[in-house]
Design a protein that fits this description.
about 35% strand, alpha+beta, single chain, metal-binding
Length: about 450
C-alpha cells in the first residue's frame, strides 16, 4: 500500500495543471456486491508538455495500492512521495527527479467502498417478493468520477476509455460501449467492452446488476435497449417505443449520426436527479423511464418522453461537444432543454409540445430570474459545491429560452434553415472536443455580431 501524506504543498489550486493531459485510460474494475466494495487498476496514457517534478491527479478513494510511471522507452520513473489534498480531492505524486516532456504510462491500483449517497460509484437496492437485491451503478457528473477511479476529472481532459468489469456470475455488467468479450473464471466473469470514443470522465458509466432488457433499433441500425429490475421490462416498452423516433429525429435535425453502436437506458431504483446522459448508457430515476398504461397518468407519460428527449439531446450537446469548464454548463443543459420540446413534438405530434414551452420553461425562467440570487447563464465557478449549485432554472430554463428567442429571430430574418445549419457546423467543428459560449456565438454569426447582444443575458 502506498503511503499518502495529507499536507499543504506548492500546488494549491483547485484546478489541475494544464501541462499534463490524458489520452487513454485502461480501467479494470472488480465489484463485490457481498461486502459492497470495489478494487481496480487504471493505466493512463498521459502527455507531459513541460518538465515537471510532480503530477496532480484526482482521487477520493479508500486507498491507493500502488503507483507506477513508465516512460515511452519503457523505463520506470521513481517517485518520492505523495501529498493528498482532501479539500481539492486530488493527490500530488512527486518524483525523485524532474520528468521530461513526452508520453508516459501512469498506473495506479486502488480500493473503494460503494457509496450510499447516490454519487460516484454507489449501491442501489430494490425488492422482489420482499427479498432485497443489490446493484452497483454510477453518477459521475459533475465531479465524482474521482470517487470511482483515479482520473483527470475535468471536462476538457477528454480521452478514450477501455473498460473491463469483473463480478460474480450472479451479475452482469454494462458500460458506455457494447461488450466485446466475456471471460469466465470459476465463480467470476469479466466483461470486456469495446473502446469508447474520446470523451469526458463525467460521462463514463458502468453498472453491475441482475437487470433484464428489451431492445429495438433505429432506421440506421443503432441498438436501443431499456434495462429494468427483473419482471419490469413491460414497463419500459413505452420508453423504448418513444426513444427510437427521438434518436432518429436528432440524427436528422443535427445532420450527424449518433456515433456509438448502441444506446442503453436504465431505470435505477435509487437516483438523485431525473436522469443522467452518460454516453451510450443513460441512467434514469425509475419514475422517469417506466410507464404503466394501466396505472400511470398522461402527465407521467409526457414526463417519460420529455426526460428521454432531454437526455438524448445531450448525446450531441454535452457529449459530442462539451463545455470547456462548468461555467458554461448552460451550453449542455440549455440546449437539451430547448431541444426536448422539438423531439417530443416529432415523436408525439398530437401533444403539441412546442406550445407547452412557455408555461413549462419560460415562466419558470422568468421567476428564477426575478430572484435576488439570480445569475447570468454563464458565470465563474470553481469548486464542486459551486458547480452543483448552477444546475438550476437559469442554466436550464433561461438557457433554453434565449436559444428559442434566438432561433425565432434568425428564422424570421434569415430563413428557417440557417439556425440549425450553423448548429450543424458548430457540432462538426468541436466534435469530440470542448467549446465555450463565445465559440457558439461565433458559429451563429451572420451579418450580425450575435455575441455582442446575446452576451447581455
Amino acid at each position: 500500500m502506498t503511503d499518502i501524506l495529507v499536507a499543504k504543498d506548492k500546488w494549491d489550486d483547485i484546478r489541475l495543471p494544464t501541462w499534463v493531459s490524458p489520452s487513454h485510460y485502461a480501467l479494470d474494475m472488480e465489484t463485490n456486491l457481498k461486502d459492497f466494495t470495489f478494487e481496480g487498476k487504471v493505466h493512463i496514457t498521459i502527455d507531459v508538455k513541460k518538465k515537471t517534478k510532480f503530477i496532480v491527479i484526482h482521487q477520493a478513494l479508500k486507498s491507493i495500492e500502488f503507483i507506477d510511471l513508465v516512460s515511452a522507452d519503457g523505463s520506470l520513473v521513481k517517485y518520492s512521495h505523495i501529498v493528498h489534498k482532501p479539500e481539492y480531492e486530488y493527490s500530488i505524486i512527486y518524483f525523485k527527479k524532474k520528468i521530461s516532456k513526452g508520453q508516459y504510462l501512469l498506473s495506479l491500483g486502488f480500493t473503494g467502498e460503494l457509496a450510499t449517497n447516490m454519487a460516484g460509484y454507489y449501491l442501489s437496492t430494490y425488492k422482489i417478493n420482499s427479498v432485497e437485491h443489490f446493484l452497483a451503478t454510477t453518477q459521475f457528473e459533475p465531479t465524482k468520477a474521482r470517487y470511482a477511479f483515479p482520473s483527470f476529472d475535468e471536462p476538457d481532459k477528454k480521452a478514450v476509455f477501455d473498460i473491463t468489469m469483473t463480478t460474480s456470475t450472479q451479475y452482469h455488467a454494462i458500460s458506455n460501449m457494447p461488450v466485446k468479450d466475456i471471460i469466465h473464471a470459476g465463480e467470476y466473469q469479466t466483461f470486456v467492452f469495446e473502446s469508447t470514443v474520446k470523451m469526458s470522465t463525467y460521462l463514463v458509466a458502468f453498472i453491475v446488476s441482475e437487470f433484464e432488457s428489451i431492445s429495438s433499433q433505429t432506421n440506421n441500425g443503432v441498438k436501443i435497449s431499456v434495462y429494468t429490475a427483473p419482471g419490469q421490462t413491460k414497463l419500459g416498452e413505452y420508453a423504448l417505443k418513444v426513444g427510437v423516433p427521438i434518436l432518429e429525429y436528432y440524427q436528422k435535425v443535427y445532420g450527424i449520426d449518433f456515433p456509438l453502436p448502441k444506446l442503453d437506458m436504465v431505470a435505477v431504483p435509487d437516483f438523485s436527479a431525473g436522469a443522467m446522459e452518460n454516453w451510450g448508457l443513460v441512467t434514469y430515476r425509475d419514475t422517469a423511464l417506466l410507464y404503466d398504461p394501466k396505472t400511470s397518468t398522461p402527465a407521467n407519460k409526457q414526463r417519460v418522453a420529455t426526460v428521454i428527449a432531454h437526455e438524448l439531446a445531450h448525446q450531441w450537446f454535452g457529449n459530442l461537444v462539451t463545455m470547456k469548464w462548468w461555467n458554461d454548463l448552460w451550453l449542455n443543459e440549455g440546449f437539451a432543454e430547448f431541444m426536448e420540446y422539438k423531439a417530443v413534438q416529432a415523436a408525439e405530434p398530437t401533444w403539441n409540445m412546442t406550445d407547452q414551452f412557455i408555461p413549462l420553461d419560460l415562466v419558470r425562467a422568468l421567476r428564477a430570474d426575478e430572484s435576488l440570487f439570480t445569475h447570468s447563464i454563464a458565470l465563474p465557478v470553481k469548486d464542486p459545491a459551486e458547480i452543483s449549485n448552477i444546475f438550476d432554472d437559469i442554466s436550464y430554463g433561461k438557457g433554453s429560452s434565449i436559444l428559442r428567442m434566438l432561433e425565432a429571430w434568425m428564422d424570421e430574418k434569415y430563413g428557417k434553415e440557417v439556425f440549425f445549419g450553423k448548429l450543424h457546423n458548430y457540432l462538426l467543428e468541436h466534435a469530440y472536443s470542448n467549446a465555450e459560449t463565445e465559440q457558439l456565438w461565433e458559429a451563429l454569426r451572420t451579418d450580425q455580431d450575435i455575441g455582442s447582444f446575446m452576451s447581455t443575458w
